[in-house]
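Hey, can you fold this one?
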Amino acid sequence: MGYKVILTLLEGPHDAAFISRILKENGFTTTKKIIKDLPSPLNLYLSNPKSFQSALVEDMKIGTVQQSFFPKEVLEKGDNTVVLFSTGGVTKTEVRNKIITQFNAVKVAENSGEANNEKGLSISVLFLLDAEEEGLAIRLAAIAKEISDAMNVELAAATITNGGFVKIDDIDFGAFVFTKPATEKGRLEDVLLPLMQQANEPVFEDATTFLSKINSYALFTGKTNNADVKQITKVDKQDFNFEKSLISTAGQLQTSGKSNVQVIRESSYLTKDKILANDQCKLIAKFFEDTLIKVQA
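Sure. Predicted structure:
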């Protein structure tokens, strides 16, 4: 009996929440297994807390000790196990490299015996990152470089296509770059936010009106770096993102006091019908489907 472990490398926890929502509407379920009962060698990998520490504990301050890159969720469908990692952003090359190399090392050690080889393990590593302003081609080339470095091979940039796969050793690597529909630039929010706004336009229009008043409030007068709320990146020296603020503001109507991650996971702004009908969500679902072990008839 074969089985597959799919390591999914995302940017932030809200990315993981959205991908989880799409996968669940396409037949995946969150695992109820404890770590030791997950498929090998995933169980061994996740059982080592030091794998997910960004620094030695003795070198960290109280309040900063955390396992930042421990997976946000593990989902299953048939003999496939999908592990969702939030790696901290598109620039966090070293984090994604560490996940790949450490998991590969555990896999090699675990499969050194004949009995383990007979289990039929196969592995996929999926990159799901934003194109940003750099654009699709540059992001795909960067992913190719990350794979090359992690696997110590020479991989031409043109080898990696959006939504496509390449096999290196016994690992299937795939890349899906988020763009604004019909463009080669953009981010996951360019898919997520329109989907949340669909059929809920008055809510988001009112939330936009509220956020747009930021420069008129005495508390923030002169403390933003742009007159246009959509272009503001700093408010009183704090990071600001209009789209994230919009999701949060609208989300509080239903998921009071909860984070954007929980808004995406739980709110009614996203529905099964909307996800299954959306072209971008269909492409994301197909990207995962293309790498799964299929149930034999």
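The longest strand covers residues 121-130. Let me know if you want another pass with a different chain boundary.
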